[in-house]
Known about the structure:
Elements: E1 21-24, E2 28-32, E3 36-41, E4 47-52, E5 69-76, E6 84-87, E7 92-98, E8 102-109, E9 123-131, E10 137-144, E11 153-162, E12 168-174, E13 177-180, E14 192-194, E15 201-203, E16 215-216, E17 223-224, E18 230-236, E19 239-245, E20 259-260, E21 263-264, E22 268-272
Antiparallel strand pairs: 1-2, 2-3, 3-4, 5-6, 5-11, 7-8, 8-9, 9-10, 11-22, 12-13, 12-18, 14-15, 15-16, 17-20, 18-19, 21-22
GO molecular function, one term: carbohydrate binding
InterPro entries: Gal_mutarotase_sf_dom, GH-type_carb-bd, Polysacch_Lyase_4, Rhamnogal_lyase
Amino acid sequence: MGPPRAASPAGAAVDATAGVRVTVSDRYVEIKNGIFELMLSNPDGIVTGVRYNGVDNLMEILNKEDNRGYWDLVWNPPGKKTGIFDVIKGTEFRIIYHDENQAEVSFTRNWDPSLEGKAVPLNIDKRFIVLRGSSGFYTYGIYEHKEGWPDFGLGETRVAFKLRKDKFHYMALADDRQRIMPMPDDRLPPRGQPLAYPEAVLLVDPINPDLRGEVDDKYQYSYEDQYNNVHGWMSFDPPIGFWQITPSDEFRTGGPLKQNLTSHVGPTTLAVS
């Protein structure tokens, strides 16, 4: 997210020195630090809301809560080539650590033999961290496969954020790769015409007429992992950004030349392994 400001457009004061607070209810876990507020579903661990700079929610409020900010994976049992898509939802919540300077929370989902063939044989622990004085949050996952559990293939695992289409229209991947983007509505008939495969759409009658005749395809925004350090979206009213920042490449597979998805029309931003 963007840098902290002295006050939000709505007039709510921002206190960059405030301590980190955690509020837990039956349905939500709310973490705030005086700069922004992170709302997570309890015990699923889905990012249902991010409040910042006077905007009540940077996530797409038109989407269902479990389709805003989430971890997912694609896996397959032995002998099957078709991957199974799974949005990872926790079943148990706990606070790992909390004081005025830091909060770390956990959402876990454990596997047992009764789930064989139905769920990926992993214990999964999704973590979220908020620090004092920071305008963003950290997230990481711990995947555990115990001895004797079934083999499986893991095609990919991701963190996906779907932002508000009424605010985020400008996308940036690098100094020389940034632009005003089409709207998601532009990809649907009659504004968009499907091409050879589902991801590629000809913009026949886009909302922004300057984009007429272009082809939108999320794969054209792929980036080699060695350069894929930060990408995201900007809003001009109010002036804020939402950025996916990669602290290291240790979780990635395929080497520095592998191309992965970054951000694309949605507005969507991804971290892919």
